[in-house]
């Protein structure tokens, strides 16, 4: 679903962007520049919004996994609620993750030897953000708030880092993240169930 949503959104946005580029530019040179910019923007937006559009399908995966694990049925969620929550998670993850990662990358450029420190920091940050994004789905199905999530992260930091590191590394491969997204949601649901079982 996320991959299909990304391709559909990207295709639609490219079509709109190329139409606007042809309509708003007079010279061929500017039209080419605008068209290239529209395609790049469409690819970024399509990949970013794919998770949000796939929210209801990902919520269904959580329900199926929790039923398979014999857990109580999670709260039902409307399509609009799933879509809105998924969009909020995507935007929050980007807002919290992009500035520090850009700052660490800037440090790499200004002082290249710092990569010995900045690269592990970026991986740790990416891992925690990936886990935060994935466990949001099972936590939301349980109606758990932010305080409960932070408590879980404090109690299971090693598990959160390990799970998130694998998912973050896989997601670094272009387009692979879209196919990994459902796997990550299923894995996060099972991780949460396992940490609950172990107390």
What keyword list fits this structure?
199 residues, mainly alpha, 2 domains, 8 helices, 0% strand
Give a verbal description of the structure.
- The mean pLDDT is 78.
- It is built from eight helices and no strands.
- Helix content is 85%, strand content 0%.
- It is an all-alpha fold.
- The protein has helices spanning 2-24, 28-53, 55-68, 79-110, 115-142, 146-155, 157-171, 176-197.
- It folds into two domains: 1-53; 54-197, no CATH class.
- Helix 4 (79-110) packs antiparallel against helix 5 (115-142) and helix 5 (115-142) packs across helix 8.
Query: How many strands in all?
Result: 0
What's the structural domain tally?
2
Mean pLDDT: 78
Give the biggest beta sheet: none
Order of helices and strands: HHHHHHHH
Helix count equals 8
Q: Radius of gyration over alpha carbons?
A: 19 Å
Uncertain segments: none
Q: What percentage of amino acids are in beta strands?
A: under 5%
Give the distance, in angstroms, between the N- and C-terminal Cα atoms: 33 Å
Briefly, what is this?
With 199 residues, the chain is mainly alpha-helical. It has helices spanning 2-24, 28-53, 55-68, 79-110, 115-142, 146-155, 157-171, 176-197. It folds into 2 domains: 1-53; 54-197, no CATH class.
